[in-house]
Amino acid sequence: MKQRNADLLMMLVTLSWGSSYLFMKNGLNSVSPFNLVALRFLLAFILCGAIWFKRLRLADKRTLGYSLVLGFLLFAVSASVIFGLRSTSTSHAGFLASLTVIFVPALSVVVLNQKPGARLIAGACVTMTGIGLLTLSGPMSVKPGDLLCILAALLYAVHILVTGAAAKVADPLNLGILQLGFAGGLGLLFSFLFESPQVPVTLEGWISVLMLSVVCSAAGYIIQSIAQKYTTPTHTGLIFALEPVFAAAFAYVFADEHLSVRGYIGAALILSGLFIAEMQRGRTSPKGMKSATTSKPPGMAFKSAKN
Questions:
Q1: With 60 as the cut, is the pLDDT of residue 286 above it?
Q2: pLDDT per position as a tens digit, 145-190
Q3: Mind listing the UniProt keywords for this protein, alphabetically (predicted)?
């Protein structure tokens, strides 16, 4: 697969995740936070497991190990965002969660000993400026929820790097499926410990859970695991910066929410930042990333340190 095609697949994944905000909001009206995490990922795991059962039986210890790490990160990211929204505004959460765009290249320097090109750095800066214009609506102050959303952004940056390393040495499909099972299992465990697990009782609740499971989770994370084998973690982080743009588009179409002039300028800056970064593609090949990634797998670094 060419890197351009892999990047297009990552964009489709980001489009699906842009829709997740509407479904999460509706889903939380029917079930509690950990319960929603459990339903979302376990249903996705059951669906994918039923389709690719024979292939899952061939999963080796390396794939299981990486999947466990990715599942833990995925659970932690989802839980951090959901609980963060309890004490911070949606606009602050959207901006802070998008700090993944900055954390990915920063961690690449620290963990993988890679220095992103000048255009990638410039693209990330322009993109972050756009995200700020698109999502922030007032003065920013640090609240517990803000810190949780920053944590979610950092954890998802780690998730991107670990996925990039794991996809090159393990079966990407099994990797994508098994991490859903581990994340859902952790959600169910925490739901039993701190909540009363239940299933949605309304049609709207079920639609939200099923869309989160099938489209945003089953399809999204499996495609991410496969596509990241052919692109770079920094490109992945920048493409994911489109999530607030897609979220705003879904809100406009389905919830009749309109962007301000500043919001449209922010969306344009995000797209411009991605274009600037894409101009670096010819100088950064996935093949070159492979040797650096496999020489020092991120998963090993975070086993001793730490969605």
A1: no
A2: 888 888 998 998 899 889 888 988 888 889 888 999 999 999 999 9
A3: Cell membrane, Membrane, Transmembrane, Transmembrane helix
* CA gap 286, 230 in Å, rounded: 6
Share of the chain above pLDDT 90, in %: 22
* 3-state secondary structure at position 44: helix
SS3 9: helix
By C-alpha distance, which of 189, 128, 185, 121 is closest to 153? 128
Residue 179: what pLDDT?
A: 92
| Full residue range of the structural domain in which residue 287 is found | 3-303
pLDDT at 86: 74
**What's the length of the chain?**
307
Distances (CA, A) of 288 to 181, 281, 285: 32, 12, 5
Residues 248, 152: Cα–Cα separation, whole Å: 20
No. of helices (H) and no. of strands (E), the chain = 17, 0
CA 85 to chain centre: 17
DSSP secondary structure letter of residue 137: -
pLDDT tens-digit map of 108-123: 777 777 777 787 788 8
Per-residue pLDDT at 291: 34
In total, how many domains does the chain have?
1
